[in-house]
Amino acid sequence: MKWLIPNMRKQNLWKSILCFNLFLFISTGSVAQRTQNDLDAYTPFDNTSFNEFPVITIKVVFHVMQRSELDPENFKNDTPDRQRIAAILENCNRFFSKLSAPSIEVDPNIPVVHDSRIQFRLEDIRFHVDSAGWDRNKFMIVQGGPWPFPVDSVSKETKELFFFNLSAFRGFNRSDSLVVSTPNGPVVLHKDNVTKSGKTTVLKVNENIDLLDPINATYFRRKDYNCGSDNWKNFADSDKNHLHIFLTGASSKRIQFGCAPSPYFMNVSNYIYGGSWAGDQLTAHEIGHTLGLGHTNYPQFKDLPRTDKFCSGCPCNGTTISNNIMGYNGCRNYLSPNQIGHMYKGYSTLPNRIRITTACEYDPDQFTMIRQSQKWDRTRIVKGDLVVKKNSQLEVNEDLYMATGTTLFIEKKAKIILNNCTLSSGCGTQWNGVVYCRKFKRKKIKTPKRKKGELILQGSSKLNDVVP
């Protein structure tokens, strides 16, 4: 008999939402303990300069999982589809840089941040033919342990199967379909209902079973790999230097869905079946999870609405459905200042996040000049050389990360003070250390004979990861 994919019982909305497994950054306290000022210090408000808050660029690798070579049921490895995949990331860049005002106003004094200054750079598109890696949600026959259970008795008149145990009740209660072994091979039947009679499980089916001689029976169970790490381990070698986006499919359903349980990988299934705009919105939403944001139905920060109704594709409004990227709505064009500050802080202060960005790439044209006395009161990343000019002073009060191959130049009569902080590489590599010079000239560095600049380490301050 031909095998059929069974119709499973519909799951309620909240169970579906749980599939979107949230990844939240490990922090030193609860959400309630994150102070407004702490996140404000890392929020690129519209009136801040790009020197003060440069764009953070995250390196992205797409993986297209194909079901088979003849019928990939996904993007193909050709120029048009590669361009479509690249366009997904381009649109995500627009989502994060062309933000609108909130549809639900929490407080008129909360400013609108129109550009999160977080962007994404496409590093590679890789194609893999692997049916298991492609199928993120499928039905499987339950085997092993007591399954399949022997059919102890049959009533062909009432279409009932009897099992002299209650374990069968718990199993068959989970599924609308079952697989029955007969002398002529397996048959798929559909459950009418399942009841208990003493210690006996009574399973009534819809089909006529007059011609069947059931031997044993088991059931179908939906297996969900949406949030699994297997593709990241098998096809990205558990790489932690990029964000890996897996474009996959599912044999059990054709709707778009996704999950982002880690800063290193995420899944988007059935992109090709739901339309590009919906797929781009879903991808941006899941990227938000990788960056540390949760859903907005339970507000993560004080500048979010206390309630946000989840209604996929519904128009946002001013009362119940927000336009937040992290909500379920048809707008998805807003992020709050605290959401943006939380993302920006994570990728400015945590070395394992910094390595996912381009901050580790030395840029000789992006040097930072300190021409007058300054205080740095938040953690920063320096992609190019840092130069403290003559008669200037830089006071650093939080950790400072230097990209691979950068140098700290201290000119004559200049001073840099580290207050209980560390100057190091956040990239797992080394930087070039400190050079004292008369005047910064990249091609010709002269050491001052007198009034040499100073590097002052106060408290527990130290320099790490310096090239010997």
Q: What descriptors fit this protein?
A:
single chain; about 475 residues; alpha/beta; Collagenase (Catalytic Domain); Elongation Factor Tu (Ef-tu), domain 3; 3 domains; eight-stranded antiparallel sheet; 25 strands; disordered N terminus
Mind explaining what this structure looks like?
- This protein is α/β, with parallel strands linked by helices and about 475 residues long.
- It has helices at about 15-20, 35-40, 80-95, 130-135, 165-170, 230-235, 275-290, 335-350, 350-355, and strands spanning about 55-65, 120-130, 135-140, 150, 155, 160-165, 175-180, 185-195, 200-205, 215-225, 245-250, 255-260, 265-270, 370, 375, 380, 385-390, 395, 400, 410, 415-420, 420-425, 435, 455-460, 460-465.
- Strands 3, 4, 5, 6, 7, 8, 9 and 10 form an 8-stranded antiparallel β-sheet that branches. Strands 2-1-11-13-12 form a 5-stranded mixed β-sheet. Strands 14-17-20-23 form a 4-stranded parallel β-sheet, with no helix packed on it.
- α3 (about 80-95) packs across α7.
- Mean pLDDT is about 90; it is low at about 1-35.
